[in-house]
Amino acid sequence: MTPAPNSIRLALYYAAYFAVIGILLPFWPVWLSAKGLTAAQIGLVLASAPFVRAFASPLIAQYADQRGLRQPIILGLTAVSAAAFAAFYFISGFWAIILVTVLFFMFFSASQPLAESLTMHVVRSESANYGRIRLWGSITFIIAAVGGGAILEGRDADVIFYLSLAGLGFLFFVCVMLPRARFEASPSDRPPLLELFKIKTFLLMLAAAALIQSSHAVVYSFSTIHWKSIGYSETLIGLLWAEGVVAEIILFHYSVTVLRYISPVMLIIMGAAAGVLRWTIMGTTDALPALFIAQVLHGLTFGAAHLGAIHYISDTIPPHLSATAQSLLSAVVMGIAIGITTIAAGAMYGVIGAQSYYPMAGMAVASTILGVLLYIRVNRDA
């Protein structure tokens, strides 16, 4: 039997990984709420995951860069994360839940930046299309979000746990088949993190990306709970989540054409500017037509900003630093920044509800400003 092309293997990885995310992101807060956690406690549990990512991912990625390895490490991390997640079956109570959450995300989150690095290696060496590989993750996210909402309708919240555990089992199987490419090991004795900290434009990109991506904290953590509280069904909520990802898929599908005309830095700016509009809408009204408009903007607030950051790293960072750069992006953007913002979101949502989106709009404004400064700096140095 002829082995599947590397791009198909990677597409399967994204499909499996984001199917798990498609269950956890919209519905895990519902499971936590069913376990008796308050809004503030849910915020702390959800925030613990990004903080763990910020600590673990760069250390594991440095090891991967220094050894020139990707697939064996991804496989091991996935196996341990599945075992940790299974422990949720046996526990209850805030402290036990937050401990298992830390263990799970320590390994689960560290694998994805390594997969991004492996994917961009295939993109460079085989002229593959990153967007068309990555979009399969968005497609399965939609299927999981909509399907999960339909399955959950009228059922016990423990269904969320079983669906997620099954997804992790499939992800492990897919990781066995990932490309086993060897990377050039880092030639310097200096830790890759220290080399990256010397690149000023990289740090500016990190700050801009961190602000726009972490401004999603309220929608990620509390939109499902809020929409349920105003009477929207689980199926409708799943559709609202899925709707924005459709725009993301379209962007990823045409990413090569988009990047031919729009630079990675400009994509980050566009995502941040869209965030100002999106969070203002969601803080102002719960009317369904307005929410449909706001959710379509996810294609820019997440999709364009993510695509811009990933391609900025691929275009400007040496391959022997790529895993560390991707993990630092994950650690800062989806780790420290969103962790702090999620804690704040939990406190704010408990007091002001949906008006918590207004501070998120302010973060998007700051991201837009930093993106413009980065654009000026990059073009001045060109």
Task: Write a brief caption for the model.
The protein has 382 residues and is an all-alpha fold. The chain has helices at 6-34, 39-67, 71-86, 94-126, 130-152, 158-176, 192-197, 200-214, 217-229, 234-253, 255-261, 264-284, 288-296, 298-316, 322-352, 357-381.
Note the main sheet: none
Unreliable stretches: none
CATH architecture: Up-down Bundle
Overall geometric form: globular
What is the CATH class name? Mainly Alpha
Write out the CATH superfamily name: MFS general substrate transporter like domains
This entry's quaternary arrangement is: single chain
If helices are DSSP runs of H or I spanning 4 or more residues, what is the number of helices?
16
Helix content: over 70%
| Helix/strand class | mainly alpha
Number of beta-strand segments: 0
Q: What would your notes on this structure say?
A:
The model has no long low-confidence stretch (mean pLDDT 87). This protein is an all-alpha fold. The longest helix has 33 residues, at 94-126. The radius of gyration is 20 Å and the shape is globular. The protein has helices at residues 6-34, 39-67, 71-86, 94-126, 130-152, 158-176, 192-197, 200-214, 217-229, 234-253, 255-261, 264-284, 288-296, 298-316, 322-352, 357-381. The protein has 16 helices and no strands. Helix 12 runs antiparallel to helix 13.
